[in-house]
Amino acid sequence: xxxxxxxxxxxxxxxxxxxxxxxxxxxxxxxxxxxxxxxxxxxxxxxxxxxxxxxxxxxxxxxxxxxxxxxxxxxxxxxxxxxxxxxxxxxxxxxxxxxxxxxxxxxxxxxxxxxxxxxxxxxxxxxxxxxxxxxxxxxxxxxxxxxxxxxxxxxxxxxxxxxxxxxxxxxxxxxxxxxxxxxxxxxxxxxxxxxxxxxxxxxxxxxxxxxxxxxxxxxxxxxxxxxxxxxxxxxxxxxxxxxxxxxxxxxxxxxxxxxxxxxxxxxxxxxxxxxxxxxxxxxxxxxxxxxxxxxxxxxxxxxxxxxxxxxxxxxxxxxxxxxxxxxxxxxxxxxxxxxxxxxxxxxxxxxxxxxxxxxxxxxxxxxxxxxx
Length: 372
Known about the structure:
The chain has helices spanning 3-12, 49-61, 86-96, 101-114, 220-226, 235-250, 256-272, 284-293, 298-301, 304-312, and strands spanning 20-30, 36-43, 71-75, 121-133, 147-163, 167-170, 175-178, 183-186, 191-195, 197-199, 202-204, 207-212, 281-282, 317-318, 326-331, 334-339, 346-351, 354-359, 366-367, 370-371. By secondary structure, it is an alpha+beta fold.
């Protein structure tokens, strides 16, 4: 799925859309011992309106975030099409429309067994249908044409926090007193998935879109254990990998000017691709072009293909994950944060035989908030 396709589904994921409906909704609670303590399926239209609104909000959250960070698509490897594979499992859940008790039990059992989770959590899942209208050659919706139904399962996994301490104001006693009961509060989802994906305005049952609230530390068990897919590098890992590639290729020529220039060129590349449907990627060829523009000699550029293949297995890196929006210069006991518009005001220079950081002070200067 690209950005445009995600936006289309998210835009129509509401009660006001004439092209979208929710059928059955599954609600479940799994304790810290991986026991399915509670499960229930109900038609969405029969839910209490306030509860339905909260569930809609929870599910829609799993479509939010940045593609390539919070949202990542995974294609199922061949073995996951076998009888006990994840693709076969999710395809069965999809076709059941959450109306078959045996399938629901298997669905929740697999989640409980495969996904590593600290503490208790709730599972919300809904069978949804989006009526997909055809588009004209001008990429506009043709409302006079027929439509196809895109059926999908959207699932959210939410931590449940136990709250029992604290003071409350009691409506009965009209006093502030100690809370005597405990509440299990369902928090915003930390993980989720959409199956099948929406690709080229058609369902693609060969891939799943995974959501992670904390893209820096995603729950890898969702991808590797539950989905049986190969985990893709996190955003911080992509940046670390890129930094190693840059160091290995450039070597001693890696200095302040080169680092900031490369960062600026990748940032420009990301900004110029804002309206593209796919996230901008940096592969060996793109890195070669960037470093050539930075004046790196050809003999060093010849090392890029081998270094890139060793570090990434020739998989391109998401450009947005490589960009630093501010430059941080660090030495022992000193850290200087430099905004992107002030990079050219800073230089590294040798003065009196010592390495120095030279900052052009064009404006007034303050120390600890005091002007000097």
